[in-house]
Design a protein that fits this description.
This protein has 217 residues and is mostly helical. It has helices at residues 4-17, 19-35, 49-56, 60-81, 106-109, 129-138, 147-152, 154-171, 178-188, 190-198, 206-216; strands at residues 121-122, 127-128. 60% of the residues lie in helices and 2% in strands. The longest helix has 22 residues, at 60-81.
Length: 217
């Protein structure tokens, strides 16, 4: 029997566990790669995912960019939530819920950094509804995943925030500093960043500076 939500959860887990896939292919490409006729999630797959990752990692530049993106996202999480979680733990975490119980309790929400009771962003990754909808639009079999549920479940929030950030790195791969540009886009939205770039205006840097501060610690 086909279970869309289970398929979606599997895909999210794979992308979070193997960030180089997202950076290398972008979500649209990665999804086709993972779920197509010769995809990695097919039982008859010729090349296992571990081998595909090894092939991608032979590209030193790509490997370096992926490592930079993963480390930078740790700074994003720290800035958003005051909780430091290594990117390598995101696909396996099961212990962050206690930090964000107040998300479900409006009475206490204003006292928890990272909850953002203004309704614009939520959880340990500070993910917005708009960003999450855009992300789910690119992932097959994820229409059954409720936006509210994903935002308010800390573990899913972190995974989806991580994948969204990595997809931004792919989206801005041709700019001078793709990872730093992605941090700004994560904060103010990629549409606004592209508009500023077209107008040849400087990108805001306060959020980026805050994230970079944590990277130096």
């Amino acid at each position: 029997m086909y279970h869309p939500l289970n398929q979606c959860s599997m895909l999210i887990h794979i992308l979070a566990k193997h960030p180089i896939l997202v950076v290398a292919l972008g979500l649209v490409g990665a999804v086709h790669f993972l779920t197509g006729p010769m995809g990695l999630m097919q039982p008859s797959s010729v090349i296992p995912i571990e081998q595909q990752v090894q092939i991608l990692e032979t590209d030193a530049g790509l490997r370096e960019q992926t490592a930079e993106a993963s480390a930078t996202f740790e700074g994003v999480i720290t800035e958003e939530s005051s909780v430091h979680i290594k990117s390598s733990q995101i696909a396996e975490i099961g212990y962050v819920t206690r930090y964000f119980e107040a998300i479900l309790d409006a009475k206490h929400a204003r006292r928890v950094r990272g909850v953002h009771p203004d309704g614009k962003s939520y959880g340990p990754s500070g993910l917005t509804r708009l960003a999450l909808r855009e992300l789910l639009r690119k992932l097959p079999d994820c229409t059954a995943l409720g936006v509210t549920e994903a935002l308010l479940t800390p573990e899913e929030n972190l995974k989806l925030g991580y994948i969204y950030f990595l997809d931004l790195v792919h989206e801005f791969k041709n700019v001078k500093n793709p990872v730093e540009t992605s941090v700004v886009a994560y904060h103010i939205g990629p549409t606004k960043v592209k508009k500023l770039m077209r107008q040849k205006k400087a990108l805001p840097h306060l959020y980026l500076d805050a994230v970079k501060k944590f990277l130096k610690e």
